[in-house]
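Please check this.
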Amino acid sequence: MNLQNIITEYPNFPKKGILFRDISPILKNPAALSHVVDEFAKKFHTNDVDIFAGIESRGFPLACAMALRYNKGMIMIRKQGKLPGSTVKRSYNIEYGKATMEIQRNAVNKDQRVVICDDLLATGGTAKAAAELIEKLGGQVAGFAFIVELTDLQGIKKIEKYKCESLVRY
């Protein structure tokens, strides 16, 4: 299945000069979503993963679908102020501004192996912040699963010490 034909492009979103690649059409297409999960299931062995983490917000459905396939749990890494209870936060730069992500303090157990899921890898700031949050809680990053990777932005360099899998590269 050619996922590139399903992904929709929006020029100048969220600001001028950005070409936004939207995976929403994959999420509403059961065959495409199943294909995505099947492809990642070939790349991450069930014995190497304890839990999946989704990065807000497009990483949530991917992490949830993966968790169901693997019969594992799913946790959320969210924008600041969106999670109840005690949290750990990390601020970082993204391709069009600054952001702060949080995770609940009780989301990850010590040495728990976490695959972090998101729709897209751009400059790598969000992914790196997510990994740092997991590790701050004592978890181990078992890898990253991205549907799309924007290779020109070289975000992979910020997380190259981890296993990184992407299905579509631009």
Summary: The longest strand covers residues 140-149. The radius of gyration is 15 Å. Residues 30-41 form the longest helix (12 residues).
